[in-house]
Amino acid sequence: MAISKLIPTLVLFALFSFDVGVAHPGLGFGWGSNNPIGGSFSSNLYPQFYQFSCPQADEIVMTVLEKAIAKEPRMAASLLRLHFHDCFVQGCDASILLDDSATIRSEKNAGPNKNSIRGFQVIDEIKAKLEQACPQTVSCADILALAARGSTILSGGPSWELPLGRRDSRTASLNGANTNIPAPNSTIQNLLTLFQRQGLNEEDLVSLSGGHTIGVARCTTFKQRLYNQNGNNQPDETLERSYYYGLRSICPPTGGDNNISPLDLASPSRFDNTYFKLLLWGKGLLTSDEVLLTGNVGRTGALVKAYAEDERLFFHQFAKSMVNMGNIQPLTGFNGEIRKSCHVIN
């Protein structure tokens, strides 16, 4: 008799629990997930986060990206860099998108970002289309993560199962952007320190640096290597000579700071492992690229050689490291907000 009364109660409880998960996916109820090969998810992020609340989210993102990258292939690298610069400052929370206001000192004005960070108009277009389809559902932080993955795929790189469910910050950190984002003239020890501060290791450092297989850099970021690398008015001796002379023609001793050069001169719009091959040939553009090979600290040099020899290995580790980076201090649950506009807090 007691058991017969208990069974309907359990059935009702199970149905109610499922309904809550469907109605409020952002609360962390509902679906579990299987970890991707070689990846690990933050406990509050999972790939199916928008399965019911906005199932077309990734399709909307990819549609906008396809058009933007077809028009300007460089945009893929810009969007990948936007996600990276966001995650390294108070976590993956879209703080980099916030404009100056009475309460916000924008990260866009930080040294590593000013006059160089770009792609905001593409993020805005994605956000507008998502707001039409699923109002106040998909966060700007998740849009950055989806755009980074989509840009990698559309450039010929790997895909990965992307954990979602990040929420947007109500704050930004200009100081954090100035201190936590690696500089182009970083030493290998400085790079390792900044990555370890974010919970990332040597494999993450080298594989994520491989994102430089696409995109360009401004003359001001590598001029020191050409004319005064060690304070003796001499070039960086690790630069291959013909490459060095080619860079001098792009980047004169005075002026031309905004002239650009591809980070991967062989295939600047294709995501591949050529970046690592170029490092072995003395044709890495930035000091922070070349020291991965020549810094003589830890296993970074061995990893450069391994990725140069095996593109599949690089792709596998890059995908894993993008998940790791995307897990840096996300806001979840009731923390933060879902911004209506990525540029301002609600």
UniProtKB/TrEMBL annotation:
Cofactor dependence: heme b; Ca(2+)
Residue positions of the active site: 85
Domain Plant heme peroxidase family profile per the UniProt entry, residue ranges: 44-346
Site location (Transition state stabilizer): 81
One GO CC term on file: vacuole
Cysteine-cysteine disulfides: 54-134, 87-92, 140-342, 219-251
Function: Removal of H(2)O(2), oxidation of toxic reductants, biosynthesis and degradation of lignin, suberization, auxin catabolism, response to environmental stresses such as wounding, pathogen attack and oxidative stress. These functions might be dependent on each isozyme/isoform in each plant tissue.
Family assignment from sequence similarity: Belongs to the peroxidase family. Classical plant (class III) peroxidase subfamily.
Protein name (database record): Peroxidase
Species this chain originates from: Arabidopsis lyrata subsp. lyrata (Lyre-leaved rock-cress)
Organism lineage string: Eukaryota, Viridiplantae, Streptophyta, Embryophyta, Tracheophyta
